[in-house]
């Protein structure tokens, strides 16, 4: 997921995508415990996408607080 894609998302879309990625990471971790994972680089990609979404959410919160003060 590109940072520009994340910036263009609405707040609701961000929250839904974040939830989806967290569920995907959970399933990957379960799969790693129960069976062999084919592509281990998926862990890194999902974690980085989660970080991108959280960073954008935090930036929006900080921007909103800055405007209201």
Can you describe this structure?
The protein is mostly helical. The protein has one domain (3-68): Helix Hairpins (Orthogonal Bundle). It is 83% helix and 0% strand. The chain is elongated and about 50 Å long. The mean pLDDT is 92.
Q: Find the CATH topology.
A: Helix Hairpins
* Total beta-strand segments: 0
The biggest sheet, with number of strands, parallel, antiparallel or mixed sense and barrel status, is: none
Helix content: over 70%
Mean pLDDT: 92
Q: List segments where confidence is low: pLDDT < 50 over at least 5 consecutive residues.
A: none
Question: Element order, helices and strands?
Answer: HHH
- Rounded to the nearest angstrom, the radius of gyration is 15 Å
Which structural class is indicated by helix and strand composition? mainly alpha
Name of the CATH class: Mainly Alpha
Shape: elongated
Q: What count of helical segments does DSSP give?
A: 3
As for the number of domains, it is: 1
From the 3D coordinates, which CATH architecture would you assign?
A: Orthogonal Bundle
- The percent range for strand residues is under 5%
Span of the ends, CA to CA: 33 Å
